[in-house]
């Protein structure tokens, strides 16, 4: 019974955080417990990201870099894709003006920091899940990301 009370309190805290930060959803996972809190207003918003968000990005990138769409066309399907483990804001360097953690063409080791995701005012380093070469960085510094969004491609 105390477990259910703890979950209720956690859900209330996540809902409050959702309102404070103006996020559309928050997901919390620990061991076998997974809690997802989302705003009830935007059911249409759930339908928009797969089509509306994915379509404009390649169109905007295609004129600037003709070679990029071949890799960027479906980064979620790429076997070397590293997804965002949380909703937050990405930072490519440890502090403003510092050298980025990684660049395209860099060789990275398993566990090496790829970038930082700020969530709930906590800086969370994202470790590389495997060793390899950075083929593409799919996010920009200071931009928000959603849970599961492709961040980096490592081959």
Q: How would you describe what is shown here?
A:
The N and C termini lie far apart (47 Å). This protein has helices at 2-21, 43-53, 56-64, 68-72; strands at 25-30, 33-38, 81-83, 88-91, 107-108, 113-119, 122-127, 132-137, 144-145, 150-154. 29% of the residues lie in helices and 30% in strands. The strands form 3 sheets. A 4-stranded antiparallel sheet has the order 3-10-8-5, with no helix packed on it. Residues 42-72 have low confidence and may be disordered. It is an alpha+beta fold and 155 residues long. It has 3 domains: 1-41, no CATH class; 45-73, no CATH class; 75-155, RNA polymerase II/Efflux pump adaptor protein, barrel-sandwich hybrid domain (OB fold (Dihydrolipoamide Acetyltransferase, E2P), Beta Barrel). The protein contains 4 helices and 10 strands. Strand 1 (25-30) and strand 2 (33-38) form a beta hairpin. One of its GO terms (molecular function) is acetyl-CoA carboxylase activity. This is Biotin carboxyl carrier protein of acetyl-CoA carboxylase.
Portion of residues within helices: 25-40%
Write down the overall geometry. globular
CATH superfamily of the largest domain: RNA polymerase II/Efflux pump adaptor protein, barrel-sandwich hybrid domain
CATH architecture of the largest domain: Beta Barrel
| Beta-strand content | 25-35%
Oligomer: single chain
Question: Main β-sheet, in a few words?
Answer: 4 strands, antiparallel
Strand order of the largest sheet: 3-10-8-5
| CATH top level class name of the largest domain | Mainly Beta
The number of domains is 3
Please name the CATH topology of the largest domain.
Answer: OB fold (Dihydrolipoamide Acetyltransferase, E2P)
End-to-end distance: 47 Å
GO molecular function: acetyl-CoA carboxylase activity
GO biological process, one term: fatty acid biosynthetic process
Domain Lipoyl-binding: 79-155
Protein name: Biotin carboxyl carrier protein of acetyl-CoA carboxylase
């Amino acid at each position: 019974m105390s477990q259910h009370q703890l979950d209720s309190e956690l859900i209330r805290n996540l809902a409050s955080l959702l309102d404070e930060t103006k996020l559309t959803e928050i997901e919390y996972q620990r061991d076998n417990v997974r809690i997802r809190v989302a705003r009830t207003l935007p059911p249409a918003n759930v339908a928009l990201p797969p089509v509306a968000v994915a379509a404009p990005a390649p169109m905007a990138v295609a004129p600037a870099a003709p070679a990029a769409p071949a890799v960027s066309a479906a980064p979620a399907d790429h076997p070397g894709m590293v997804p965002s483990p949380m909703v937050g804001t990405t930072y490519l360097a440890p502090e403003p003006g510092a050298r980025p953690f990684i660049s395209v063409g860099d060789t990275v080791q398993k566990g090496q920091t790829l970038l930082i995701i700020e969530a709930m005012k906590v800086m969370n380093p994202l470790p590389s899940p495997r060793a390899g070469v950075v083929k593409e960085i799919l996010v920009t510094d200071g931009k928000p990301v959603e849970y599961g969004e492709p961040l980096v491609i490592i081959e």
